[in-house]
Specification:
8 helices, alpha+beta, six-stranded mixed sheet, disordered N terminus
Length: about 300
C-alpha cells in the first residue's frame, strides 16, 4: 500500500501543473561560465530559445560584468564576493505564438558567508519612449512659449488601469523610425512621422559622461523604471516640431484623450509646463520631463532642437 501511494505521488508530480517539477526538468550549464552556472528550463522553453533571447543575453552579460568588478580591491564586496550559482526559469510568455516576449526567472546570487541578493527577475528587454513637443511657428524661435507634448491614453492591465496617460512608447524599426501602437495612432490622427534623423537621445546625452571606463557597471543608456524586479530599460528621445498655430489649435480640440466606443488608444495634448502633473503616474513621462529640464539648463538641448 505504501509503495502504491508513493508511485501515485510521483506520478502526480510528473504530470501535474506547469508549476510542478516537470516544468523545470531540463537543465544545462551556461556556456563559458566560471564557476559553472546551472540553468533549469520550463517545458515550453528550449536552451537555444533562451540563449538567443536578446533580453537574456543583455541581462546575463551585464550581470557577469558587474560581478567581475568585485575583484577590484576597492570594491565594497571584494572581501566576500557574490557569485551567480544558478538560474531557475519559472515561466515564459510568447508573442504571436512563436516570439519569446517575457521570461520570469529566479537567480541565485550569494557569497561564501551565506548572504544572498534578491534575484526575482522579469526579463522583457528595452523599448523607447518619445517626448514629442509641438509649438506654434509664430512664437519666438528659441522660446519655450506655448509648447505642448503628445501623450497616449491606453489600457495598462498590469497597473489595473483602463486609461493611463503616458509618454508614447514603442520601438525604432529597421529604418530608424518610431513604430508601434502609439506611433500608428499619432500618424493616423496627425499625419506626423518621426524620422530618426530628427531624434535627440536625451538619456544618452545625460548619461554618457558617467560611462567612460571598465571600472564601472555597464548599464544600458536608458531609464530603468523598475530595477527591483525587471530588466526593462527605456531610452527617451526628444522630437520638437514647429507647426502653424491653426493646426495646433485644431489638434488641441481633437486630441483631448477622450475615447470613442471600443477605441483602445487615443491621444491628448498637454502643456509642457503641466506635463509633470498630467503624466505624473507614468515614470517615462516624469523621466522625460526631468531630462528635458536638466539638459536645457546645461545647454545640451535648446528650444529649437
Amino acid at each position: 500500500m505504501f509503495l502504491r501511494l508513493r508511485l501515485i505521488t510521483q506520478q502526480f508530480i510528473c504530470t501535474g501543473s506547469r508549476n510542478s517539477l516537470r516544468a523545470t526538468m531540463s537543465t544545462f550549464t551556461l556556456p563559458d561560465s566560471h564557476p559553472a552556472v546551472f540553468i533549469s528550463l520550463t517545458a515550453d522553453l528550449s536552451q537555444d530559445q533562451l540563449l538567443s533571447f536578446p533580453a537574456f543575453k543583455t541581462w546575463i552579460a551585464t550581470l557577469q560584468h558587474s560581478l567581475s568588478l568585485q575583484k577590484q580591491r576597492s570594491h565594497p564586496f571584494n572581501s566576500s564576493p557574490y557569485i551567480l550559482k544558478k538560474i531557475d526559469i519559472q515561466a515564459v510568455d510568447f508573442f504571436g505564438g512563436e516570439r519569446l516576449g517575457f521570461v520570469k526567472l529566479k537567480a541565485e546570487v550569494s557569497n561564501d558567508d551565506g548572504e544572498k541578493l534578491p534575484g526575482s527577475v522579469l526579463l522583457r528587454g528595452g523599448s523607447v519612449a518619445m517626448m514629442l513637443i509641438l509649438q506654434p511657428d509664430d512664437t519666438p524661435l528659441y522660446s519655450e512659449t506655448d509648447k505642448h507634448v503628445i501623450l497616449a491614453i491606453q489600457p495598462r492591465i498590469p497597473a489595473g488601469l483602463l486609461s493611463m496617460p503616458e509618454l508614447p512608447a514603442g520601438m525604432l524599426d529597421d529604418n530608424g523610425t518610431f513604430s508601434g501602437g502609439a506611433a500608428k495612432e499619432i500618424s493616423e490622427e496627425t499625419g506626423l512621422e518621426v524620422p530618426a534623423s530628427e531624434l535627440i537621445n536625451m538619456t544618452e546625452l545625460a548619461l554618457s559622461p558617467f560611462e567612460d571606463n571598465d571600472t564601472e557597471e555597464h548599464l544600458q543608456q536608458g531609464v530603468y523604471p523598475s530595477p527591483g524586479g525587471s530588466d526593462e530599460f527605456i531610452p527617451i528621445f526628444l522630437w520638437q516640431k514647429r507647426i502653424p498655430r491653426d493646426q495646433l489649435k485644431e489638434w488641441r480640440g481633437k486630441l483631448t484623450g477622450l475615447r470613442n466606443q471600443g477605441e483602445k488608444i487615443t491621444l491628448m495634448l498637454a502643456r509642457l509646463e503641466e506635463l509633470w502633473k498630467v503624466g505624473g503616474r507614468d515614470g517615462k513621462t516624469l523621466a522625460a520631463w526631468a531630462l528635458y529640464e536638466g539638459l536645457k539648463r546645461d545647454g545640451k538641448v535648446s528650444a529649437k532642437d
